[in-house]
Amino acid sequence: MKARVKWLEDAAFVGQTESGHAVVMDGPPEGGGRNLGPRPMEMLLLGTGGCTAYDVVAILRKQRQQVVDCVAELDAERATTDPKVFTRIHIHFVVKGRDLKPDAVERAINLSAEKYCSASIMLGKVATITHDYEIVQI
């Protein structure tokens, strides 16, 4: 996997992925930025949410669960001194579907957290990661 990050101006950078996608990242005005895009650490948190939500949906589909929506809401804390790594991340899943089995949802989340989600497993080396879920039956 390859990526490229190019400085634009001030605290703004554009990141380009090997798959051909681009995103602008920027800092806050007090850090010399203009708030044109998410901060790099926000991107890391979003990537973690995307990674684990993808897993949960894929696992539920393999279990033939009728999932129609999955939202991962992430709440993180960072160290107060440099390097300001994530110290705690909580992921709250809201899974919506028809006749969803709670044990299937819990199993999917646990499999993602313990085996499949590279991002959360990697961040789990420095941060305490917890999760919970709610099921919305439709």
UniProtKB/TrEMBL annotation:
Any Pfam family the entry gives:
OsmC
InterPro entries xrefs: KH_dom-like_a/b, OsmC/Ohr_fam, OsmC/Ohrsf
Q: From which domain of life does this come? A: Bacteria
Q: What is this protein called?
A: OsmC family protein
